[in-house]
Design goal:
The protein is an alpha/beta fold. It folds into two domains: 177 residues, Quinone Oxidoreductase, Chain A, domain 1, CATH 3.90.180.10; 134 residues, 3-Layer(aba) Sandwich (Rossmann fold). Helices cover 29% and strands 26% of the residues. It starts with a strand and ends with a strand. It binds nicotinamide-adenine-dinucleotide and zinc ion (2 copies).
C-alpha cells in the first residue's frame, strides 16, 4: 500500500510503498476513511529540533483518523468488523502506576501513533483495540477524524466548571477554535479570545466567540478588564503556546479563577507566580485526553449537546495532495485540514 512517510532524517515527507500492516492479538485493522493534519505533523514535516530528538525514520506519519474496522485480532471483544471508529493517538501500557490509578493520559510508557510507531497517513492501520474509539455513524467522517484534537479541547475546557462562566481562550488554532464551540455548548456565557492571524480571527467568530482580540494590534488586557467590569475572566484557557499569553492571563484572570494550560512553549518561561498565588487561582496542566472520560463526553456533546465544530474544518483534500495540505497549514489559511483516503 502507498503511505505518507518520513523516510530519512531531513525536511519533507514522501509517498512510499510500504507493507500491509499485520493484525496481532489484541489489535484491530482499520480501513482509514479520513485523517487530519496536526501541528505535530508540521514539526515532523519540518524536521525541527523536537522531531530530530524523537523520531526514528522510516515511519508512516499521522495520528488523527477515523475509519471502519476490517478485521479483529484474537482476544478482542466489544469491537467487530464494520464498526466505525476513531483513533486515540496515545498508546498506553495499562500496567504502570498512573494507568492503574485511572490516569492513563499520563502513562509512563506512552507511545504516539505517527511519532513512535507507524501512523495513519495510510489506507490501512493496525492499532491496539483500546485505541479504536467506536463512533456513532451520525458523526460525519470529517468530524470523526478530528476527535483526538477535539478531545484536547474537551479535556481542557471541562477540567473545571464552565457553565455560566466568562472564558478567555488565548490562541485560535484548531484546538482553540474547537474550545470556543465546546465552551459555548457547555454553557459559558461569554467567550473572549486572542489570535494574530486574520483568517483564524474570522473562524473564531464563526465558532461562537463573542470578541476576538489581535495582540499585534492592541494590548487585549485593558479591553478584557473593561468587558468584565474590572473583575477579569472566570476561566482562562491557554492554547497558543506563545509566551505573551501568560502575562495577559495573569493580568486578566479574576481572583479565584481557573487557568488551564494546554499550549506548549518552545522555550522555558519566566512567569510572575506570586501574582497568581495572591489571586488564589487554580492552575491546571493539561495533557492529551482522559481515557476514556473525555471520549465519552465528546461523543455526547457531538450527538446531543449541539456541538458543531465543522466551521473549523476548512479543507478536505485527497490524500495524495498532502503537500498542498501542509502548505495550507503553514500559511495559516486553514483551520483543520482533512485528508480523504477512500477515493481515487
Ligand atoms: N498539552 C497537549 O496535550 C497538547 C496537545 C496538542 C497540542 N498542544 C499544543 O497546544 C497548542 C494549540 O494547538 P493547535 O494545534 O491549535 O496549535 P496551532 O499552532 O494551530 O495554534 C496556535 C494558535 O495561536 C496563535 N497565536 C500565535 N501567537 C499568538 C499570540 N501572541 N496571541 C494569541 N494567539 C497567538 C497562532 O496564530 C495559532 O493560530 C499548541 O501550542 C500545541 O503545541 C498541546
Ligand atoms: Zn494531533
Ligand atoms: Zn501506563
Amino acid at each position: 500500500m502507498k503511505a505518507i512517510c518520513k523516510l530519512a532524517p531531513a525536511e519533507g515527507l514522501t509517498i512510499h510503498e510500504v507493507p500491509e500492516p499485520t493484525l496481532r492479538p489484541g489489535t484491530v485493522q482499520v480501513r482509514v476513511l479520513r485523517s487530519s493534519l496536526c501541528g505535530t505533523d508540521m514539526h515532523i514535516y519540518r524536521w525541527d529540533a523536537w522531531a530530530q530528538s524523537r523520531l526514528k525514520p522510516p515511519l508512516i506519519v499521522g495520528h488523527e483518523f477515523c475509519g471502519v474496522i476490517e478485521a479483529v485480532g484474537e482476544g478482542v471483544s466489544g469491537l467487530k468488523e464494520g464498526d466505525f471508529v476513531a483513533g486515540e493517538s496515545h498508546l498506553v501500557c495499562g500496567h504502570c502506576t498512573p494507568c492503574r490509578l485511572g490516569q492513563a493520559h499520563v502513562c509512563l510508557n506512552t507511545q504516539i501513533l505517527g511519532v513512535d510507531v507507524d501512523g495513519c497517513f495510510a489506507p490501512r492501520i493496525v492499532i491496539p483495540a483500546q485505541n479504536a474509539q467506536r463512533t456513532d455513524r451520525r458523526i460525519p467522517p470529517e468530524v470523526a477524524t478530528v476527535q483526538d484534537p477535539l478531545g484536547n479541547a474537551v479535556h481542557t475546557v471541562l477540567s473545571g466548571e464552565i457553565a455560566g462562566k466568562t472564558v478567555l481562550i488565548t490562541g485560535c488554532g484548531a484546538i482553540g477554535l474547537f474550545s470556543i464551540a465546546v465552551a459555548k455548548a457547555c454553557g459559558a456565557t461569554q467567550v473572549l479570545a486572542t489570535e494574530v492571524l486574520p483568517h483564524r480571527i474570522e473562524l473564531a467568530y464563526q465558532m461562537g466567540a463573542d470578541t476576538v482580540y489581535n495582540p499585534l494590534q492592541q494590548d487585549p488586557a485593558p479591553a478584557i478588564l473593561r468587558q468584565t467590569e474590572g473583575l477579569g475572566v472566570d476561566v482562562a484557557l491557554e492554547m497558543s503556546g506563545h509566551p505573551s499569553a501568560i502575562p495577559l492571563i495573569t493580568q486578566t484572570i479574576r481572583p479565584g479563577g481557573r487557568i488551564s494550560l494546554l499550549g506548549l512553549f518552545a522555550e522555558p518561561l519566566t512567569l510572575d507566580l506570586n501574582a497568581l498565588i495572591f489571586k488564589g487561582v487554580e492552575i491546571h496542566a493539561i495533557i492529551g485526553r482522559r481515557l476514556y472520560q473525555t471520549w465519552e463526553m465528546m461523543q455526547a456533546l457531538l450527538l446531543f449537546g449541539k456541538l458543531d465544530v465543522r466551521p473549523a474544518i476548512t479543507h478536505q483534500l485527497p490524500w495524495y495532495e498532502y503537500e498542498h495540505a501542509f502548505e495550507l497549514m503553514r500559511t495559516g489559511e486553514a483551520g483543520k485540514v482533512v485528508l480523504v483516503w477512500d477515493e481515487k
